[in-house]
Write a structure and sequence with these properties.
Blueprint (H helix, E strand, L loop, with lengths): L1 H20 L15 E20 L15 E7 L2 E14 L4 E15 L4 E3 L3 E4 L2 E16 L2 E19 L10 E19 L4 E12 L2 E4 L8 E18 L2
Antiparallel strand pairs: 1-2, 1-3, 1-12, 3-4, 4-7, 5-6, 6-8, 7-8, 8-9, 9-10, 10-12, 11-12
Length: about 240
């Protein structure tokens, strides 16, 4: 994470240096900003979310066999949070003198974790961690004044999850439930972006990510056991963009 932070900080420094190398300064900022064109940038932010997990040893009821209570386990939630650091690539197209449409993609490293090792149910152990965020979004913006843009955004998202649960059987993990890899869903958000020079802008935005449920079968009782994960993530972040043309 620290290595990635250093690389991103260096990239942002080069971006800003490039802007001033063009002979620009903050007081030289034009009275109007041309939002159209391609841009690159970086972001840093904070994410918080929820992860709910459910386990049932049998998929047809609370009891696996007559006289046994080894069935349903209560749905339990974990609340991961942490930092994100990412890079951005996007393109804006001016519709008229007030509205723009665009597309933006970003990839972030994340250090988002909850109560790792939390015990729940009858002794299950929860390991949690989200290591990355990817979004590909459309943007629609309104130029509030000559250098300020308010925008909405929506599209696809994916969270790289390193989350799993182990049962109460010690090394015998026949009640394990896996939620690792890239989990896909949707993203919606709002933001405001301000032009400082004719190439350099800064932004602040909020995103909500909703992921599709991850459900499947464990190996308990010949594969009759079932589990489900429900995940969502909220992100608040700031960013700097450098206009390429």
């Amino acid at each position: 994470m620290l290595k990635y932070a250093s690389l991103t900080t260096a990239a942002l420094a080069l971006t800003v240096s490039g802007a001033f190398a063009d002979g620009l300064s903050l007081k030289d900022a034009p009275s109007a900003f041309a939002w159209g064109g391609m841009y690159i940038g970086g972001t840093v932010g904070y994410g918080w979310g929820g992860s709910t997990h459910y386990w049932n040893n049998c998929d047809d009821g609370d009891v696996c066999q007559p006289g046994s209570t080894d069935g349903d386990h209560p749905a339990t939630s974990n609340d991961p949070d942490g930092a994100l650091l990412g890079v951005t690539l996007g393109y804006n197209y001016p519709i008229n003198d007030k509205w723009i449409a665009g597309v933006e993609g970003d990839l972030s490293l994340a250090d988002i974790s909850g109560n790792d090792g939390m015990r729940w149910g009858d002794g299950h152990r929860w390991h949690t961690g989200w290591n990355g965020l990817f979004t590909l979004r459309g943007r629609a913006g309104y130029e509030f004044n000559e250098r300020t843009l308010f925008y909405g955004t929506a599209g696809l998202a994916a969270v790289q999850s390193n989350e799993y649960n182990k049962g109460d059987q010690g090394d015998n993990n026949d009640q394990g439930a896996d939620n690792t890899g890239w989990r896909w869903g949707y993203v919606v958000g709002l933001g405001v972006e301000r032009a400082f020079t004719d190439r350099l802008t800064g932004k602040i935005e909020y995103l909500h990510v909703g992921l599709t449920d991850n459900d499947g079968h464990g190996i308990k009782n010949g594969g009759a056991s079932v589990y489900k994960y429900e995940n969502d993530l909220d992100v608040l972040r700031v960013g700097v963009n450098y206009k390429l043309n």
